[in-house]
Amino acid sequence: MARKLTSLALGVAIAAAGAYWYTSQSGVPTAGVTLNPVGSVEAQEVDTSGIVEMTLGAADAPITVVEYASFTCPHCATFHQNVFPELKENYIETGKVQFIYREVYFDRFGLWAGMVARCGGEERYFGITDMLYEQQSEWTGNGSPAEVADNLRRIGRVAGMSDEQVDACLQDGEKAQALVAWYQQNAEADGINSTPSFVINGENYSNMNFRDFAAVLDGLLEE
């Protein structure tokens, strides 16, 4: 199954910049919560030019795979633990695929996780992504904002960041708004309505196991 997107309740969380904005909101939605690609941010009014596209693989690879995923989506965690390692070994590292990862924000915890991953810079982003998916049930905890913030600080420390660095990233309200607006623009343009979703050389695909993924990629390589 995939996690559906139909409604986003991040307006207050991303608008309230300040020392504790990330611990002052209500609990995390359940797995069935969905979001509107227009959402609560007027994307056209937010400057997204500073948002970096996170990529792996050769820029001139014959296939481009764009994944849309949420750090709080269990199906995305399953994909990254069971399928992505083989995809990376057999197609990304061999120059056949350029992989682009785009974050989806079901809830503020997914947004916070994305901000922490980006806090480490491009060189540490995918390593932090691996930790977020491997430890998803641990860092999301019982849905307490304070507990989630503490857990994200712990992941940040493992990645070589100080608590102060992580807090500064989480407190960046302008960056949060830009990330949400950027997500909305991309998801609307690509017609994304569930996670994980994939855009492979311009065509949309839903969640797949490695065998099916490889069949799609091999078919494109044979063209």
Low-confidence stretches: 6-41
N→C terminal distance: 30 Å
Please identify, by name, the CATH architecture: 3-Layer(aba) Sandwich
For the record, what is the CATH homologous superfamily label?
Glutaredoxin
Number of domains: 1
Question: Overall 3D geometry?
Answer: globular
In the CATH hierarchy, the third-tier topology is known as Glutaredoxin
Q: Roughly what percent helix?
A: 40-55%
Number of helices: 10
CATH class label? Alpha Beta
H-E order: EHEEHHEHHHHHHEEEH
Oligomeric assembly:
single chain
Question: How much of the polypeptide forms β-strand, as a percent range?
Answer: 5-15%
Give a quick account of the main beta sheet: strands, pairing sense, barrel closure.
Answer: 5 strands, mixed
Radius of gyration: 17 Å
**Total beta strands:** 7
User: Major sheet: order of its strands?
Assistant: 2-4-3-6-7
Could you tell me the mean pLDDT?
83
Helix-strand makeup class: alpha+beta
Notes on the structure:
InterPro entries: Thioredoxin-like_fold, Thioredoxin-like_sf. Belongs to the thioredoxin family. DsbA subfamily. Residues 53-218 form the Thioredoxin-like fold domain. By secondary structure, the protein is an alpha+beta fold. It has helices at 11-15, 74-82, 84-92, 108-119, 122-134, 136-140, 145-158, 163-170, 173-190, 210-222; strands at residues 3-4, 54-56, 63-69, 97-103, 194-195, 197-200, 203-205. The model is unreliable at 6-41 (pLDDT under 50). Helix 2 crosses helix 5 (122-134) and helix 7 (145-158) packs across helix 8. It has a single domain, classed as Glutaredoxin. Strands 2-4-3-6-7 form a five-stranded mixed beta sheet, sandwiched between helices. Strands 1-5 form a two-stranded antiparallel ribbon. The protein has ten helices and seven strands. The radius of gyration is 17 Å and the shape is globular. Helix content is 48%, strand content 13%.
